[in-house]
Specification:
Layout (H helix, E strand, L loop, with lengths): L1 H16 L15 H20 L10 E13 L2 E14 L4 E13 L2 E14 L5 E11 L4 E10 L4 E4 L3 E4 L10 E4 L1 E5 L4 E13 L5 E12 L5 E11 L2 E12 L6 E13 L3 E11 L4 E5 L3 E4 L2 E4 L2 E5 L4 E5 L11
Antiparallel strand pairs: 1-2, 2-3, 3-4, 4-5, 5-6, 6-7, 6-8, 7-10, 8-9, 9-11, 10-11, 11-12, 12-13, 13-14, 14-15, 15-16, 16-17, 16-18, 17-20, 18-19, 20-21
Length: 335
Amino acid sequence: MAKFKNLIFVTVLVLLFVEVLIIFPAKLEHEDEADVRARIEKQKEEDKRRAEQGLVPASSLAEQKMQGVHLVESKQGNRDWELFAQAAEGNQGAGTWKLQKVRVLFYNNEKVEFTVTGDLGTIDSKSKDLSVMGNVITKSVNGYVFNTDSIRYSSVTRQINSPAQVTMRGPKDETGAGLFLTGQRMKVFVEDSRMLIQDKVRAEKPMEQGKSFRIFADGAEFSGKSRVAKFKGAVKMDYDSMKLEGPEASFLYSSGADILSSVSLSGGVKVSDADKFATSESVNLDLLADRYIFKGRPRVIQNNDELTGDEIIFLDGGKKVKVEKVRAKVENLEE
């Protein structure tokens, strides 16, 4: 009787841990539904046979090893994550499983938002927290790719964290290769489909005609739903011959088009090039029209002449200047 109760208890634990997805996506790596069900039924038959012979069921052994693992964790009827691994081994008492060749899909509203792959992993069968280590690649559904040494996922906060150095490549666009970035830490908010790169952020974005952006900032933020990129905290930016500084910068893409259309800096901006220096509350670099718009007490100094107005616009990449409601007379600037 004691052996029978023990068998029921252990079987319940195993079934709680190995949650098999009823409806699978169209394409999955590793086992499909039929393989998973067949393996479970085979394990049940083996446990039944051993029980009839008075032996300890194989599923109740302290150390277990499994091949072709597929697990699904759900919350309130919606998938939280779905995990595939080549192999797993663990101890039921400790509740921790070690995984090999891991692939994890993170869901939001039944749609995949992020995919993480790595050489090794662990899973806590009680908290459902995950760790992935070794050649870890995190991909957002809209094409951002992050490389780190390790990540840890908290099922309570639904956050993916990496305390190690991270590199990122953004999706390509019509103006050239995607943004390439490095930073010291990464945090991904699965619920909001938002990615943060923090500390000593360095980025570069190639553009047409041999031009490029180089950005230095305290942090960067990206969205898994759009192409908007934001840089925050002591932002310094080089573009062509210009140097720009401000507390915040945003990269914006044209609506319905895969092209970087403008870069905006706000919060008090300084801009300089070979022969000009300017300040204003905000600056918008209209890349498609090749013009730069200064708003909010704009002030431009060129060749010892000072120019102010309601709005100052550099045309033709800065070769010409247009001023709305000029407030100072200058001699060396074209209007």
